[in-house]
Write the structure tokens for this entry.
Amino acid sequence: MADRHHKALDEPSGIVSQLRDMHRRLCRGHSLTDDQCSLLVSGIGNYLYALDNGASPSLDKAIGLKAWGGVSAGRQDALSRRDDLIRRLWRSQPDWQGLPPAAAAKLMQQSAERYANLRWPRECDLIVAPSAEPAATWWRILSSGERIPGSSKRLQQILNVEIQGGV
């Protein structure tokens, strides 16, 4: 159990994803998984240990949401959500779905650049995403406060994660 737990937390946004799932489960009256119980027990234990030893306890630090240096769990979560949107777009667009990541990434980069320069300035105040893809995905990313990766190389890296089984 502990090995799976630690592996899940090493992945980008693993802790935030677990917290989201725990929240959903608890709201529905469902039990937490063993890994989720382990996360809570460990986090609360770390908090109490710091408190009992005269340190300034921080629950977010004890659970692993706050660390020194690197990318924060919240930022990892936002990037993971953006990357998921990009991979979903690749799978759903007929012109892109059969292409290898390098070719699809170039077309996606051109599309995103056109959207950001031509449509986004007019659509940034919309409450609902445009109905057609790929504009809907580009709008969702930009509306969330994230940036669309500016290079086809970065888009290719994001698409390669899916091929390697990382999603």
Observations:
- The chain is about 65% helix and 0% strand.
- Residues 2-69 form one domain.
